Amino acid sequence: MNDKERRALGEATIKDVYAGDVVVPPEGYAFSDIMLKQLFAELWTRETLSMRDKRILLLGIIAEKGEAMTFKIQIKASLKRGEINPAEAREFLLFIAQYAGYPRAAAMLGPVEQAIAEFEKEAAAKSAS
Questions:
Q1: CA atoms of 36 and 45, how far apart (whole Å)
Q2: CA 20 to 30 Å from 77, out of 6, 23, 54, 62?
Q3: Along the 129 residues of the chain, how does pLDDT read in single tens digits?
Q4: pTM strictly above 0.85
């Protein structure tokens, strides 16, 4: 696969992984070009782990790092893709609290509830139209 094909696959994959909620970075920036060609074209497309497995692993890493807003983005994408449901999203926080600490999990409460509310609002609007 040449660079152009890897970039195209990376673009398609990032759109899929984030259920269309993340803007694809423009070409020409080394950081985002490499991210698309390696992370999204190479790693996210591997089939050894399911998308759900990758997402749950990523959520654990993000939680441990205390990245609440990134956690929200991942939760919402996972909800939109049908990988998890709201009850599972909330359950993750109980597990995270035990291993990453209550302050980390507590910092994620608001963003998780926001992600769930946004997901439910978008789903209701979609079913109404």
A1: 11
A2: 6
A3: 898 999 999 999 999 999 999 999 899 999 999 999 999 999 999 999 999 999 999 999 999 999 999 999 999 999 999 999 999 999 999 999 999 999 999 999 999 999 999 999 999 998 998
A4: yes
**Dihedral of the alpha carbons of 63, 68, 73, 78, in degrees to the nearest 10:** 40
> What is the DSSP track for 47-58?
SSS-HHHHHHHH
The per-residue DSSP string of 72-111 comes to HHHHHHHHHTTS--HHHHHHHHHHHHHHH-HHHHHHHHHH
Neighbours of 27 (CB within 10 A): 11
Number of Cβ atoms within 10 Å of the Cβ of 127 = 7
